Amino acid sequence: MSGWSTGGERHAPVVDHLHGAGSYEHDALLYEDRAHLVAVAARFLRDGLEAGDSAVIATSAQTASVLRDAVDGDVHVLERGDVYRARTPTAITTFRRLADERSAGGARRVRVVGELDFGTTERDWLEWQRYESVINAALADWPLWGLRVFDTQRLPEPLLESARQTHPWIHTPGGRSANPDFVAPADYLRSLPIPVEPLEATPPRLWAHDVADFVGLRRAVAAELSTVDAPRDLIEDYLLAVDEMSSNAVRHGRPPVSLRLWIGADRVVCTIDDHGAGFDDPFAGYGPAHGEDLSRGGMGLWLARQLCDHVDISGDRDGTHVRLTIRVA
After folding, report:
1. Which region among 7-16, 130-139, 220-229, 288-297 has the lowest average model confidence (pLDDT)?
2. How open is the CA angle 188-3-146, to the nearest 5 degrees?
3. Phi-psi group of 123: left, alpha or beta (phi > 0 → left; psi -120 to 50 → alpha; rest → beta)
4. What pLDDT does residue 317 have?
5. pLDDT at position 1, please?
6. Model pLDDT for residues 142-163, shown as the tens digit of each residue
7. CB under 8 Å to 145, separation ≥6 — which residues?
8. Closest to 324 in 3D by CA, of 253, 225, 226
């Protein structure tokens, strides 16, 4: 796994964030009906409580109600929207914090039954498909055992196929077994497509061909964003993400660095391109580049992933290409 992120900013591999005595296990349950769900997921939580684990549910309200009644024990229920509808690095941070808090309270480890809200579009799905693979590395050294549940009657086949490829273990009413369809996270992440953005086929609102004057660039981007009918906090966050990625490209890439900005009816898109050595770290930006030592910097891509709805990064012989997208409608 490469340790380099956008434009050459050095990133420690996610798996090197050593923490605590436990190690993450990432399992999946593809269930057909409520009885199937309860038989497997409730047993998983009950077994954990008997073993001295903390039991947590982070699912839809309906699923949480069914499981809580079936377990009838000391189960902590998280609001799914607080965990999974936040952007993916925030979800990772939430579970790390949960493991810290619960293990400090005496739990051997934390068992979590989780249920993702993938969103309504394939573009939304992609962020959570990435997440499901990334957390095999990002949570590797935390005392967590996750069982992600997937409703096979409701979810589309691409998401069910993704579930099969991103979880090393599968649960059935007959027990737990190694998953022969599991794909190593780096390979899976590299296999995912970079979606086509139709706005890129149209003239940009702003095009800086050779970025050098950061102050002038920020003012120009801010002026264009001021025309967007969206909450100011959202726009300021996006401007910060653009700043961070532009700065990364200039500091670590090779000139010329270019920036293009589009403002559509429902989204804002910015692309930043440099002519450096390219990019090949699918894990970059899912945690600070230097682990928990934030004084060393290296937070640009991590911030961008938290501040934008979609961050797409690719590299080729021409350099590194970053696309930042926020929804405004």
Report:
1. 7-16
2. 45
3. alpha
4. 82
5. 26
6. 999 999 999 999 999 999 999 9
7. 24, 25, 27, 48, 53, 109, 110, 111, 112
8. 225
How far, in Å, CA of 135 to CA of 267, rounded?
28
Give the separation between CA 106 and CA 114, rounded to whole angstroms.
Answer: 22
Alpha helices in 149-286 (DSSP H): 157-166, 185-191, 214-225, 232-252
Residues 6 or more apart from 104 whose CB is under 8 A from it?
Answer: none
- The Cα–Cα gap between 286 and 301 comes to 8
Non-local (6+) Cβ contacts of 87 within 8 A are: 127, 305, 306, 307, 308, 309
Residue-wise pLDDT tens digits, 285-311:
887 654 554 444 457 898 999 999 999
CB neighbour class for 196 (10 Å; exposed up to 12, middle 13-18, buried from 19): exposed
